[in-house]
């Protein structure tokens, strides 16, 4: 489950690891995601819930759980599930970045997967972090995290090419279901 919308998402600001809260639309999306989860998973409390420690993901998990009658705080957090950091770019829009340094933005566009923003992290670096976490996973789980993590899991669990995963649409407050080497948004 990707977290619901924040004001920074609505403004197209790069959030990365900034702890930006959900907005009203994001809160609705979180509850809706909980209902969708209950439709596809008859016992959503029968699996462990693992959540990025950032506020927007914790709030999404709590609202989703509450919407389907589960105790809101019954989940575990894991730092490895945090979004990638955009470093010095966090809080800025792409338009702002293009006005400051068009060449850096062009370089990232040319290789979105491997490009490392100043004092930031690439999808390739996030891939390594998530791959280490994935080695510890021994059963199906409900994971509430971020768009970058979803892209990396598309590579690791669904076999998408990294360049393709970097360009895939990522939806706020929706479920990305992995099964049989496929990934499907619901």
TrEMBL record:
A Pfam family this chain is assigned to: His_Phos_1
Q: Name one GO cellular component term.
A: cytoplasm
Residues the record marks as active site: 3, 83
N-terminal signal peptide: none
Q: Which CDD domains match?
A: HP_PGM_like
The molecular function GO annotations come to: phosphatase activity
Span list, region Disordered: 1-29
InterPro entries assigned to the protein according to its UniProt record, in alphabetical order? His_Pase_superF_clade-1, His_PPase_superfam, PGM_Phosphatase
Q: Which Gene3D superfamilies match?
A: Phosphoglycerate mutase-like (3.40.50.1240)
Q: Where does substrate bind?
A: 2-9, 56
Put simply, this protein is called: Histidine phosphatase family protein
Question: Organism, per UniProt?
Answer: Labrys okinawensis
């Amino acid at each position: 489950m990707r977290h619901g919308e924040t004001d920074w998402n609505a403004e197209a600001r790069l959030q990365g690891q900034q702890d930006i809260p959900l907005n009203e639309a994001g809160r609705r999306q979180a509850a809706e995601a909980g209902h969708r989860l209950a439709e596809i998973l008859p016992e959503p409390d029968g699996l462990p819930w693992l959540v990025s420690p950032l506020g927007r993901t914790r709030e999404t998990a709590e609202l989703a759980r509450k919407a389907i009658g589960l105790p809101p705080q019954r989940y575990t957090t894991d730092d490895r599930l945090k979004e990638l950091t955009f470093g010095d770019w966090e809080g800025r829009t792409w338009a702002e970045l293009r006005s400051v340094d068009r060449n850096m933005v062009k370089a990232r566009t040319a290789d979105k997967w491997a490009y490392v923003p100043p004092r930031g992290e690439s999808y390739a670096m996030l891939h390594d972090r998530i791959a280490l976490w994935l080695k510890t996973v021994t059963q199906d789980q409900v994971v509430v995290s971020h768009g970058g993590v979803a892209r990396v899991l598309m590579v690791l669990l669904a076999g998408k090419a990294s360049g393709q995963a970097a360009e895939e649409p990522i939806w706020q407050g929706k479920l990305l279901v992995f099964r049989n080497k496929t990934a499907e948004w619901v």
